[in-house]
Amino acid sequence: AQGHVRRIVTGHDEQGLSIVTEDRAAPSVHTNPKRVGFCLTQLWMTDATPAFVGNEPDPTTRPHKLEPPRNGTVVRIIEFGPEGDWLQKIDADATREAWSAFGTSTASTNRTGQAKHPFMHRTQTVEYAPVLEGEITLVLDREEVLMRQGDFLVERGTNHAWANRSGKPCKMLFVLIDGQFDPEIAKHFDGAH
User: E-strand spans in 6-151?
Assistant: First the structure.
């Protein structure tokens, strides 16, 4: 099923021995009414670096947010459905609605509806992003890169979007690490996102 990812979580028992604390379908699954075929499965997150290592409750039960917590991380799997006619209906208002569904008002860089891709966005993060299945096009300001299964991206706070022009679903893993823009780079855009 779309979004079904088996999540196994380990922990420690009262004697400090390693145990499995959970083995089930990851419970935090999100679709987006403005992006057909999109499914995000939140797998885990941390709130600080170094990360707290204990038997804390599932952090993915919190309200969903695109960016990781301040000084924290988030890991998720996203399935991007193929783009189609629905993409032409995404104007600036629809873009705002789509991003607000992910708990962010600052990530979108498509404020006028005239961006290179309707879902262009930027966050103050370093992201590790391998393609698990399928293929997808990374859309940047001046270029595009076709990524296929096994390709790995290090995304460093750039304005970008994901365009699935393949006609088939594409599944990617994302690890987002909270960051801070280099002031020399941030001076070229609103550094708030």
Answer: 6-12, 18-25, 28-31, 39-46, 73-80, 125-133, 135-140, 144-148
**What's the pLDDT tens digit per position in 3-34?**
689 999 999 999 989 999 999 999 999 998 88
> Distance between CA atoms of 81 and 60, rounded to whole angstroms?
23
Residue 64's closest CA among 78, 80, 50, 48?
78
CA distance 6 to 9: 10
Beta partners for residue 93, in sequence order: none
Site of tokens 């028992």: 13
Q: In sequence order, what are the residues at sequence separation of 6 or more whose Cβ sits closer than 8 angstroms to the Cβ of residue 108?
A: 95, 96, 99, 119, 120, 121
Of 105, 140, 123, 136, nearest in space to 181 by CA: 123
Q: What is the pLDDT of residues 148-157, one digit of tens each?
A: 999 999 999 9
